[in-house]
Amino acid sequence: MTKKEQKTDIGLIGLAVMGENLSLNMADKGWHVSVYNRTVPGVEEGVVERFVNGRAKGKSIEGYTEIPDFVESISAPRKIMMMVRAGAAVDQLMDQLFPYLSPGDILIDGGNSNYEDTNRRVALAESKGFRFVGAGVSGGEEGALNGASIMPGGSVTAWDEVKPILQSIAARAADGTPCCDWIGPAGSGHFVKMIHNGIEYGDMQLIAEAYWVMKNLLKLDNEEMASVFAHWNEGKLRSYLIEITANILRHKDKTGGYLIDKILDTAGQKGTGKWSVINAMELGMPLGLIATAVFERSLSAQKNLREAASKQFVCQHSQVVYNKPELVKDIYSALYASKLVSYAQGFAVLQKASESFGWELDLASIARMWRGGCIIRSIFLNDIAAAFEAQQKPKHLLLAPYFKEEIQQLLSGWKHLVAHAMKEELPVPAFSSALNYFYSLVSSKLPANMIQAQRDYFGAHTFERTDELRGQFFHENWTGHGGDTKSGTYNV
Ligand SMILES: NC(=O)C1=CN([C@@H]2O[C@H](COP(=O)(O)OP(=O)(O)OC[C@H]3O[C@@H](n4cnc5c(N)ncnc54)[C@H](OP(=O)(O)O)[C@@H]3O)[C@@H](O)[C@H]2O)C=CC1
Ligand SMILES: O=C(CO)[C@H](O)[C@H](O)COP(=O)(O)O
């Protein structure tokens, strides 16, 4: 590849769907970009050449196939963004890049890396005199090209230098704010992106359940369902995922049939939903709706088992003729209320992570960053940002005055829909998980006294008493032949 006299503004590694489009986006915003992709003989050849002579032709993009030439082409302090498969590839690339970097150079990992890897990589890069930014990027192919939501965190001194480029390629919310701002230290940017993706899983499961109830109980056809989603997209549920659901339902393939009806019902997953749940568990935080969404994808993938089971237990749907507008209203209530629960759970995990790791996350700013560009973009993120910005910070998002009122309006339709779907033997796991969470949340008393009694009965794990001060732990000799020795009292 050609070496140019003038150094470029930024380097980008990894010319798959995200990397190609991000580099085109950068070039369109006036940045001079160097791009690199590995060459694997016989497997991955000519990627750079095809790109620079194809989509990048005539743009201020230079292609490189050797790391030393690529690094050399970028002006110092260098900014190098990696858009490669998360995991070992990032470590391998860092090892290849380190020998050619100069002190102060900045590596940006825009992939869906695990935040713990980013914690480690920030420390490693800084120990060598470099800087490292873990920047979650959301928006898929279109966002990468036209404006993504970008969540950068890591070496704080890098922010001033990467900010002009990252904010220029970010989407803008309706009020003109770029959907990219500094998140915090270490792996906080990737943690926030992980929870974004977890919420994405939840939204998708909820929309899928709404679709399933309309299809199976109301017997709406694809065009009718598309109209319902398109109508919802004009109101409080306005969001990218609702919008594309309407488009998907209307889409016909080249045979003239609806494609949605030909897609196998087994969902894939690349890990960020699962990590969200694992990390919520580590932090001791309930994230039931996202967990349900992850497990439903896993269950969907057990297609053979489900087919066998469906022959042994036949679910009974009644032949009731429904009042369609009424039930559609209930589905709306279940979808909107469950979505509120999901975001409340997700933001509570962010709050807890912020406190546990000392990140000082600005939850309102995160909500604002998600209003444009990303997959979960929606207008109700404005209401979430407003709730976190209020003078009186809510203890929990659902207790913020606006959301409390919304839930009060939605509750009747939501519980009716869940109860009805259960009676009709139709699975609505995320709607019901959200409803159960809500009822538990608003119960000042739960049956955990029984769990504590059982733990103490069989393992002397102790309990607190309602008639004593909090923080004192007691053990009962339940059987008369147990001892007084207690197990340690701690929570993991
Ligand atoms: N697709 C999407 O919608 C989104 C993806 N992301 C994240 O962005 C990143 C890029 O995603 P995407 O564009 O979808 O493509 P992939 O996740 O499929 O990543 C492919 C890229 O990684 C490169 N790569 C893989 N292994 C190595 C290695 N060992 N050394 C160097 N390069 C390697 C590939 O090079 P080669 O061509 O040689 O195989 C290719 O350029 C991922 O982390 C992904 O999770 C983030 C947001 C949205
Ligand atoms: O990061 C993204 C969007 O924000 C990706 O689209 C994400 O990888 C999709 O996740 P999965 O493949 O697990 O459904």
UniProtKB/TrEMBL annotation:
Domain 6-phosphogluconate dehydrogenase C-terminal as annotated: residue spans: 189-479
Record PROSITE patterns: 6PGD
Protein EC: 1.1.1.44
Residue numbers binding substrate: 112, 138-140, 196-197, 201, 270, 297, 455, 461
Entry binding sites for NADP(+): 14-19, 37-39, 84-86, 112
Top-rank lineage group of the source organism: Bacteria
Reactions the enzyme catalyzes: 6-phospho-D-gluconate + NADP(+) = D-ribulose 5-phosphate + CO2 + NADPH
Gene Ontology terms for molecular function: NADP binding; phosphogluconate dehydrogenase (decarboxylating) activity
InterPro entries: 6-PGluconate_DH-like_C_sf, 6PGD_dom2, 6PGDH_C, 6PGDH_Gnd/GntZ, 6PGDH_NADP-bd, 6PGdom_BS, NAD(P)-bd_dom_sf, Pgluconate_DH
Keywords: Gluconate utilization, NADP, Oxidoreductase, Pentose shunt
A GO BP entry: pentose-phosphate shunt
This protein's pathway: Carbohydrate degradation; pentose phosphate pathway; D-ribulose 5-phosphate from D-glucose 6-phosphate (oxidative stage): step 3/3
Active site: 193 (proton acceptor), 200 (proton donor)
Enzyme class: oxidoreductase
Subunit structure: Homodimer.
Cited function: Catalyzes the oxidative decarboxylation of 6-phosphogluconate to ribulose 5-phosphate and CO(2), with concomitant reduction of NADP to NADPH.
Record family assignment: Belongs to the 6-phosphogluconate dehydrogenase family.
Stated name of the protein: 6-phosphogluconate dehydrogenase, decarboxylating
Source organism of this protein record: Bacteroides stercorirosoris
